[in-house]
Amino acid sequence: MMRLVLTLVFAGSFTLATWLDAPMRELRARADNGAGLVAALMGDSRRLFANQLFVEADVYFHSGYYPTVFDTPEAEETLDVNSKEEAEKPGAAPASGRRPEKDEGGGFLGQPRDWVERFGRHFMPTEHTHLASAKVAEILPWLRLSADMDPHRVQTYLTASYWLRGTLGQADEAERFLREGLRANPDSYEILIELGYVFDFNKKNPRMARNLFELALEKWKKQDAAGLQPSPKARIEILDGLVRADQEQNDLQQLLPDLEALKAVSPFPEAVEKNIQATRAKLAAPPPGRPD
User: Fold this and answer.
1) For the chain, what is the radius of gyration of the CA atoms?
2) Domains of the chain: total
3) What are the start-end ranges of the E strands in 78-169?
4) What is the pTM assigned to this prediction?
5) Which pLDDT tens digit goes with each residue over 264-285?
6) Which residues form the domain of 205?
């Protein structure tokens, strides 16, 4: 009897192994192609988890104050790049650890309808606050998992870099994470812009920053030519970065064409024109120490 049972177990194991061989070969191939075992197991559904992890990080950042799980933190058009102002002073907040934002009228909950609802709100988040200082580090594991689940979600890399290089002062970590994102998204002008900010504002390397902004502009133009409608705001940020790098290197010959390109798309062309005239005057002036 025992011999019969063992024979059946052996036969069943052999049949199962034969049946699973082809799927396992495919799974190993997908994992070896850089997707990773988790991504290979979950397939395209991992993108849903990546988005949810990103939203959970944002909910935690806002201390639980969030309308619904179906709402996004900001309008989609504001999520393309981190602006120059954000790059210069990211994550500014008081040392108390939280940055409150007064929301008159009861926020998304509205005014309480009666004293029962008013009392109940003492036990749920109703104030819009932001994490600050070292507490921001608590959301980074969520963003790391989100990137692992969906390495093609560009906004995850931008958000993580924003906090790494800004509030936490970890520019090297921000650069490594962004370069990881760039390997997964080689045509992303957004990641290149953020990398440019790391080298410009954090590492004080305008030459490298300019190279990154220049490459970002190439990627932007390529997408524009392909009809992909890249963000006009991003183009302004790129050209502004090029102008800033030229000024930091005192490269007037390159500064002039970059200013002219910026003037064509800037919402403040008059201010850019003043810079153009000042640059032309400097170029026309004789070198120091030489007579007119």
Assistant:
1) 26
2) 1
3) 98-101, 128-131
4) 0.67
5) 999 999 999 999 999 999 999 8
6) 39-249
